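Lab notebook, bench 4. Still working through the backlog of constructs that have no structural model yet. Next entry is a single chain of 285 residues. Request: give me the structure tokens for it.
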Amino acid sequence: MMKNNKIFNTICVLSLIITAGVFIQSCSKNEFSEIEEPLYEKYLWIDNFSSKTDFSEDENGIFMDALERIQKALEIKDHLCVINRTAQQLNIAEDMYIVFQNIVTSANLLALDKKTIRLKSGSEGGSEGEGLFDEIKCQAMYVACIAVLLTKSGSDFSIECFNKYWSGDNSQMDLSHEKFNDIKNWTPPFEKIPESNKRKIMIDGKDYYQADISFYGTPYGYSLGTATITFNSQGTPVGLSDTYDFNPGAEGRDKQAEFATKEAGKAGATCGAKAYKISYGVIIY
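Model written out:
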């Protein structure tokens, strides 16, 4: 997983783009002048949310709790996903709410730009209303998943991978030489990989080694997760193979990453997403 300060730097940049650099600080609950009836008992806020750069594990948990409330409040209006509750109704701080609004706006732009929303139609014999409900549900799920990726990763590659998955395109993704070279920079040295994680293989009469490498904590944590890297006999990475499929229970994930994986998998199963292979260079499945 990305470090907490990188997580929040990403979302704060999104917030500042829209708010033109004006910082709105978290306020305690009794500072609201007009309080609407809250739907949740616990008030969520982080002191000096917009201006601080280091966040504790507890504060990161507060943010994820707020994200869950936002996800439940998403609906479609005029073909766009919107938050149908106010900050007061969701009982979260105004500055955090603004960040979520900006994330939803960014996700809508991605969805419209790439035309990757795969809407599940109503079941055969179902009513038009049921089909519309499925469309709303799938677009809301897409925006919610993108929101998580923007807050956790923010990388173009993670968004690209998810959009391909969500579109139902299960053709193999072949990485560019430039992309693989960057991934190599985040791959641990061969000599530091435990021997128990090295598998010797032979391809075209040459010796290679494969190892399952966790990329959590790097820019590729929310795209590759854990991928199989092929090394030549000199210990140089020469290949990569992975399946983009939101499989639960993989090693290297913390509780939040595991929760996000399970939810994205459920959403994909509902809305027609399909797993696919990611590869480069010397590989063997």
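Notes after review: The radius of gyration is 21 Å. Confidence is low (pLDDT under 50) at residues 1-34, 114-133. Flag for follow-up if needed.
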